[in-house]
Structures are given as structure tokens and as C-alpha cells.
Amino acid sequence: MTTSNVPEIPLTDDGARWLETAVERIRADAGALAALFPAAGRACGREPVPGDPAWTVDEAARARLLLALPQTGAHLGETLFELYAHGDAAERLAVLRSLPALEHDSGLGDSGVPLVRDALRTNDARLVQAAMGPYAAGHLSDHAYRQAVLKCVFIGVPLAAVAGLDSRADGEMARMMADFAEERLLAGREVPPDVWPVLERHPTFLTRIHALIGEER
């Protein structure tokens, strides 16, 4: 059973008590989050969630802390960005993975977009992959989404992990992928396999690539 796409997590009695108390403290005082958010890994554990290895226990626990915040909209977005900016990699991943749940339950709206943009400026594949979830698919502009998908290909984030690609892989994205593939081929470098499914949606962009590789795919 999940709540707002946040998986259920196995906790020890001590861990469960800590999380319950932490949630109540944050509901009463949002300022308590600053100390409790970093402590979640130590209190709850950091192992992958059984049956949902895309999440770790500390990420899911931190998501529950964020969902307890008595904030919405821009105010919530500011709190999240502050946590993200001062957090370590595990804390940043937790914030990014929590965005869809916060949109659904806490009225985040567009106020999480600056977080996604910041993550996409890094070359940390883990952060980029976490950023390109359902929240980004629903809120990034067409141009920003295309650029983010191209970055995923460039740094090795599998496009199977990118939300929204089926509906957002348009002709302009295919053109950008064709340009990227052509540059790689002319430089004697391998084209990442994730490029081809996007190009095959728009076969007209395959013509010059076929000419370069000298064979039909």
C-alpha cells in the first residue's frame, strides 16, 4: 500500500516511533523540519525499500516528513529549495522524488520547477534521473523538457526512467537527437542506443543518419 506514490517502508519499533513523532512535530511547527530531515537516515535506515528499489527507506521517510509540512504553493517551494540547496546527495534525491506526492497532496503547483532546473544543471546522473520524474513531465516547458532528455542521453541516464516520453517525444526532439547522433558519428563515436527509439518515431530524421552509417537500421 502506498500514500501519494510514496511506498510503505519497513521500520523497527524505534524507527516507527521516531517517524510518527517527527511527523507530528512538523505538522505543529514547520521549522522543526530543518533538524529532522537530515536525521531520517540514521533513525529509519538507508536500505532499498523491499519491492520498490527505486526508493530507499530514508527517502520515503523524508517524503513523509515533507508531506507533513503545513505549507502550500510558493511557500512550500521555498522550503523545499532551502532543504535541497543545503542537503547532501541523499537529501536532495529525497526532495526530488517527493515532488509528485507534494504536487498531489500539498498543492505545490509550479513552485517545484526551480528544484528540477537546478538538478538538471548538474552532471550527477542520480539527481538528473530523479528530477525527470512525473513532476518534470507535467511542468517543464517543451524546450526545457527536450533539453533535459538530450542531457539524459548525453550523461547516460536511461530514457526508460524518464517520465512522459511517450507523449512528449515530438518532432523537434527527434531533430535534436538526429543532430546529436550525427555529431557522434562524424566524431567516430558510438551513438547511445536510447537515441534510436526517439528517431524511429519520426523516420524522416533517420535519412541522413542512415547515410552516415551506410546501412538501414
UniProtKB/TrEMBL annotation:
InterPro entries: EboA_dom (IPR047715). It comes from the Bacteria. This is Sugar phosphate isomerase. It comes from Planotetraspora kaengkrachanensis.
